[in-house]
Amino acid sequence: MKAPDFTLPDQDGKMHSLKDYSGKKVVLYFYPKDDTPGCTTEACNFRDNLSRLSSKGVVVLGVSKDTPESHKQFIEKFHLNFPLLSDTERKVIREYKAWDEERQSILRTTYLIDEQREIVKVYEQVKPEEHIEEILQDLE
Predict the structure, then answer these.
(1) What is the span of the domain harbouring residue 120?
(2) Which among 17, 54, 111, 135 could disulfide-bond with 7, CB atoms 3.0 to 4.6 Å apart, if both were Cys?
(3) Cross-strand pairs, 9
(4) Does the annotation mark 44 as catalytic?
(5) What is the pTM of this model?
(6) Within a domain: residue 3?
(7) Alpha helices, DSSP H, located in 3-122
(8) Which bin fits 91, alpha (ψ -120 to 50), beta or left (φ > 0)?
(9) Nearest 5°: CA angle at 49, between 106 and 69?
(10) Burial 29-52, CB ≥16 within 10 A → b, else e
(11) Which of 18, 27, 39, 53 is catalytic?
(12) What CATH number corresponds to the domain at position 77?
């Protein structure tokens, strides 16, 4: 299945579209809120393993409904080394089925997207502590 394209601002206001990453694998992960325990664990695991992912041609993009300003503070506090995209209107979050309408919250969901923008795998109910190893195994 083709991954839906999107255009969202990062922590610096720079716009990112999925089509910008054609020819690269993308880990597109949706998380509930900046600077909360599970989200920090997940982001720091991506940070600490970014070179392992990059060596496999993978780009990491995080998405939440937080503002670019909130993302900037989160990145600076934890020295994150990849973009965090802001979807304050939750349009992309909904399009990727990462929104729980009943709870009005983001479902911790990750998409592994290949070089042709095809969805290779969807990770639902992600466990932040173990998630990076799952992705790395699937990239083998």
Answers:
(1) 21-139
(2) 17
(3) 15
(4) no
(5) 0.95
(6) no
(7) 37-48, 50-54, 68-78, 91-95
(8) alpha
(9) 45
(10) bbbbebeeeebbebbebbbebbee
(11) 39
(12) 3.40.30.10
